[in-house]
């Protein structure tokens, strides 16, 4: 009897309820469908995952496939094996003109352009997007109606007006709006204004060497956010990032609006149900004083290790295509509110009546990662080529702590972000020096980014019901 061919898949444990259970179920199901293969998925620490893969690769230990969080994409590109060669091969190169693997159809042609483009560099799709998110605005319909706010605000000026109306309520919430102090919203604000974090077109035209956290786009965002806070409209819990506290405030109707990730849709719907009000969902507001470019995307992607023997490579690619088939991609959306990563999975959900029964789930695909025609006057998808640079996580850590000093301690926004730029530049310089070293040691500054992720784990429905309100 022929031995099974092992396919090792390493993934960061995102710690969503049942996250690793689903991975193990998928591995078992694929192995059942293709009994000549045995897929084993190993969940590793989210914070240290890139560091671990880099260290193991230098020792000659490597999986067939590894999943990276989007801001670690540059680390994946720069990781080398024990011979000093790039650890990963691009998905587009590995697939070539093939249309199926072990009978599993290729999905490359079916990927939503916003996610395909994010992981494409110099015309090469380096990795296969697996989880997709963006940012949304969630409203309390009853509170907004009482305040006389029609619809949901879509611009910063409309948010200002909505906040003033909510504040005028005699028995209204303590604040009008909140969101977590997290780097994803900084990214969205920059992207919507067409701003870049780093030089060389956000690291897309060449390796980034300088970072700027006092650009006009960043300054506009920081000043607007700080003004909302100083005017008493923005609820800052004082914690970084505090996904929990801002969700509690929405649930307990201490705010009328919360901005959060699109993968929060299920949790937010449950929060509204507990709070006894109607949830509205819309786009993340943009700066109406400059042209609106469109939202950025985030998520994870799957990277294929180079140099696999042909049988292992065939099985690994078949597994990647299978896990992205319409049924599996649609189920991933249902479980965790992630954006349907392919057009076929979206069509399946639509044909099943999923969006008719859950209309707030369609907003991301229809009106965010697609251009909102009512806003831009054009159709298509936004340029979602996010920033690529070393120690992105560490830079985000620096940004959010700088904003925390502005909001909680009254630091001067410009001076504080000048200091943040200097600190982030040091991280970037250290990273680029690491890349230029022939005999690379551990990825530098690997501990950065951990502190502000400390409550990344989301709620289960039961957890959400048992959360103690902040004001108790």
Automatic annotation (TrEMBL):
Q: Where in the cell is it found?
A: Cell envelope
- Keyword annotations of the record: Signal, Transport
Keyword flag Ion transport: no
**Is the Transport keyword given for this protein?**
yes
Q: What Pfam families does the record tag this protein with?
A: SBP_bac_8
| InterPro entries (UniProt xref) | Bact_solute-bd_prot1, SBP
Family per similarity comment:
Belongs to the bacterial solute-binding protein 1 family.
Q: What is this protein called?
A: Extracellular solute-binding protein
